[in-house]
């Protein structure tokens, strides 16, 4: 059993690594299949830069199918030597993730030696394509065809009699692009889906043998088929562009191939304007969204401002002074970004589509969401998954108090100690804020700051009664989750710790915490100094198997600075921290909300007298006012956002990152499909014009044309009326 699993994994990995097409024909058919390949399929493959092998199945047999992402067969006759063996190999190939396109005839209905396949053995293959076969071959007069126009190659003349058989399509994800209308009824004769498709008998050809169907287009549709049709094409390299789409669970392609209209957007990194590539011009003219992320030939230095009238933001949001290179916009544009009053970010309607310029000098982690939102708002129709969750972490709380007087505290409150400020003033105010805004906190407890790795002491935590007194209250308080910040404040990375020492330190912390609550099983952990590595996660899990969430820093540049899952632990980087300035707090939080509906806010009780976190030397009253302004701005403008404890976020993020929805756009309908094992509700941004109806979900908010949708069932359908 284990060997089969390993083989399956190896096959899947090899399938992902290669992209090659196998073309099979029968040499005995006097060039029938070979000519179809050479005239109508190979030119399309070469245009898409797809590698291929052309093989005579009778002379050379079946090669190793694991080397191919798609097999295309083109046979005229229905008999084959060792037909059952052929069917078994093809069925196994499909079952392991391969794709098969059958042109005209299966080619293995009968065996030259008389050992003919049974109907069950035939359907072992057909069923994996999403169809069921029931014999019944006959010739009938075809009155007309119903054909999806994007697959129609030429006008259809007189049709006459054609072979018909009983194929029933049972899969909802199979797309029928050609149907034959007869006196008996309507029959599917051309279709494709996740595992491939069929062009039945000679319905794809007219009486002279010339195709009426774009066969190469069918091959392309199968090669590029995805259950998630939120696909973008990114040409060029930029991590922030890639991650903006990955966070929103988009599929990303890096090579321009096939029908460009399938892309929700095309992003040109370091592209130039005006556009010279005719394929990109046609893409935009026909309704596509082309985004240029680059540095233009004009330059301006000044305050960078995103405009609230053009984006889903509470106010014009400033990002401070930058030198920005941009392209001068064409006549008739709309600006969404100004630098020193100049329109440096713009949208231009071109044909049926739009061109968006986003200055590369402005793009960073803290502005990914603004890039994504301008794309979302300008796509003709788009539904995008979001997390719909934010958490507030009280970093370093509870913390040791040293019974000392700090100038900043004494100046504002008189002669009180650090402990009196933390536990009698700061914590009281934080509880009042939580009550006023109906929010909840996740704390991150730290027991000392001694940085020692050789001896595990809790003397600092017990030096005053404040920490131990409050932990007894917090541990049973339903309005706060008690998480961990570490045994001490030394980052759990291999340059600081030996793995065994770190495990022992955490086990000592676990034993210490059982003095307050037996069986204490924390779920949330905030990495000291926001730094952790693989060794740190392993040590943490060894001592605290219950840990499911680790908080880090979004602005860092390492493997732990993105929203990912590591060894079953959800990494939640802080997008926003500190008390001021309000504009900075709002700008960074809003960016994450615009990208995928989340933000993570971290504050410390000792920020007041930390020079790097209170550089202006503000009073606690002033810092608290800034915090309240920030929360008021975010909660009032995004009232639909769910506030969670860390342990709740761990579940929400895990489901979001591991259970990706299938999103299918079909005519005037959008289908969103999730397995029944997914956690519900799930949430989405929706940009759609006009009236629509929803089944399996509901609208929970609308702002500036963007809807927030709650999905309640595993199938949600949105139909434009």
Mean pLDDT: 94
Helicity level:
25-40%
Largest sheet: 9 strands, mixed
Gross morphology is elongated
Name of the CATH first level of the largest domain: Alpha Beta
Topology-level CATH name of the largest domain: 7-stranded beta/alpha barrel
Distance between the termini: 51 Å
- CATH architecture group name of the largest domain: Alpha-Beta Barrel
Secondary-structure blueprint of this entry?
Layout: H1 2-17, E1 20-25, H2 32-47, E2 51-56, H3 57-60, E3 70-74, E4 79-80, H4 83-95, E5 100-104, E6 110-111, H5 119-126, E7 131-133, E8 138-147, E9 160-164, E10 167-169, E11 175-182, E12 186-193, E13 196-200, H6 215-223, E14 231-235, H7 239-247, E15 251-253, E16 265-269, H8 278-285, E17 289-294, E18 298-306, E19 317-326, E20 334-339, E21 342-350, E22 353-359, H9 368-378, E23 382-386, E24 389-395, H10 407-413, H11 418-437, E25 441-448, H12 466-474, E26 480-488, H13 499-513, E27 524-526, H14 534-543, E28 549-553, E29 564-566, E30 569-574, E31 576-577, H15 582-596, E32 598-603, H16 620-637, H17 646-658, E33 662-666, E34 669-673, E35 682-687, E36 692-695, E37 697-703, E38 706-711, E39 715-720
Helix pairs in contact: 2-6, 4-5, 7-9, 9-15, 11-16, 13-14, 15-16
């Amino acid at each position: 059993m284990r060997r089969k699993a390993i083989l399956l994994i190896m096959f899947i990995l090899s399938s992902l690594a290669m992209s090659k097409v196998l073309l099979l024909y029968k040499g005995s058919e006097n060039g029938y299949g070979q000519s179809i390949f050479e005239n109508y399929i190979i030119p399309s493959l070469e245009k898409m830069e797809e590698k291929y092998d052309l093989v005579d199945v009778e002379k050379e047999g079946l090669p190793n199918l694991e080397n191919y992402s798609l097999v295309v067969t083109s046979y005229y006759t229905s008999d084959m030597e060792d037909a059952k063996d052929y069917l078994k190999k093809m069925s196994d190939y499909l079952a392991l993730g391969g794709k098969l396109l059958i042109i005209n005839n299966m080619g293995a209905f009968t065996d030259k030696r008389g050992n003919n396949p049974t109907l069950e053995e035939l359907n072992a293959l057909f069923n994996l394509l999403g169809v069921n076969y029931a014999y019944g071959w006959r010739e009938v007069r075809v009155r007309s065809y119903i054909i999806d126009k994007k697959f129609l190659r030429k006008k259809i003349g007189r049709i006459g009699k054609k072979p018909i058989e009983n194929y029933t399509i049972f899969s909802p994800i199979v797309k029928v692009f050609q149907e034959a209308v007869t006196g008996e009824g309507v029959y599917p004769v051309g279709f494709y889906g996740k595992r491939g498709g069929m062009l039945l008998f000679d319905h794809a050809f007219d009486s002279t043998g010339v195709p009426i169907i774009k066969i190469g287009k069918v091959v392309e549709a199968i090669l590029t088929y995805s259950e998630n049709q939120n696909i973008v094409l990114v040409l060029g390299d930029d991590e922030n562009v890639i991650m903006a789409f990955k966070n929103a669970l988009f599929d990303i392609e890096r090579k321009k191939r096939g029908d460009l209209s399938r892309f929700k957007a095309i992003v040109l990194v370091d592209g130039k304007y005006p556009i010279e590539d005719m394929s990109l011009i046609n893409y935009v003219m026909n309704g596509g969204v082309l985004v240029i992320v680059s540095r233009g030939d004009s330059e301006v230095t000044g305050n960078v401002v995103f405009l609230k009238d053009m984006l889903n933001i509470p106010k014009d949001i400033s990002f401070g002074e930058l030198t920005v290179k941009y392209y001068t916009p064409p006549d008739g544009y709309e600006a969404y970004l100004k630098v020193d009053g100049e329109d440096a970010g713009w949208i231009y309607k071109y044909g049926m589509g739009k061109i968006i310029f986003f200055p590369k000098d402005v793009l960073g982690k803290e502005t990914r969401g603004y890039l994504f939102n301008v794309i979302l708002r300008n796509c003709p129709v788009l539904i995008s998954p979001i997390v719909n969750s934010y958490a507030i972490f009280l970093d370093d709380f509870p913390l040791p108090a040293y019974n000392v007087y700090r100038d900043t505290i004494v100046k504002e409150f008189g002669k009180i100690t650090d402990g009196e400020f933390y536990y009698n003033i700061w914590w009281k105010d934080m509880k009042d804020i939580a009550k006023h805004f109906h929010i909840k906190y996740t704390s991150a407890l730290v027991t000392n700051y001694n940085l020692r790795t050789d001896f595990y002491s809790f003397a600092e935590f017990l030096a005053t009664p404040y920490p131990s007194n409050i932990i007894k209250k917090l541990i049973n308080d339903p309005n706060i989750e008690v998480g961990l910040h570490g045994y001490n404040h030394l980052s759990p990375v291999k340059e600081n710790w030996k793995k065994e020492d770190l495990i022992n330190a955490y086990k000592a912390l676990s034993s210490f915490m059982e003095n307050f609550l037996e069986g204490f099983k924390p779920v949330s952990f905030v990495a000291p100094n926001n730094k952790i590595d693989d060794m740190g996660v392993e040590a943490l899990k060894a001592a605290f198997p219950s840990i499911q969430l680790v908080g880090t820093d979004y602005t860092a540049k390492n493997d732990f600075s993105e929203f990912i899952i590591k060894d079953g632990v959800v990494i939640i980087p802080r997008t926003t921290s500190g008390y001021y300035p309000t504009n900075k707090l709002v700008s960074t939080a809003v960016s994450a909300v615009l990208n995928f509906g989340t933000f993570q806010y971290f504050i410390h009780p000792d920020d007041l007298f930390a020079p790097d976190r209170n550089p202006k030397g503000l009073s606690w009253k002033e810092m608290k006012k800034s915090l309240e302004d920030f929360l008021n701005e975010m909660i009032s403008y995004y009232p639909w956002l769910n506030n969670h404890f860390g342990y709740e976020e761990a579940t929400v993020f895990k489901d979001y990152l591991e259970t990706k929805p299938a999103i299918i756009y079909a005519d005037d309908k959008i289908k969103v499909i999730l397995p029944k094992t997914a956690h519900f509700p799930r949430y989405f941004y929706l940009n759609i014009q006009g009236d629509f109806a929803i089944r399996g979900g509901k609208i929970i908010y609308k702002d500036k044309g963007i809807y927030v949708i709650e999905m309640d069932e595993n199938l949600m359908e949105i139909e434009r009326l």
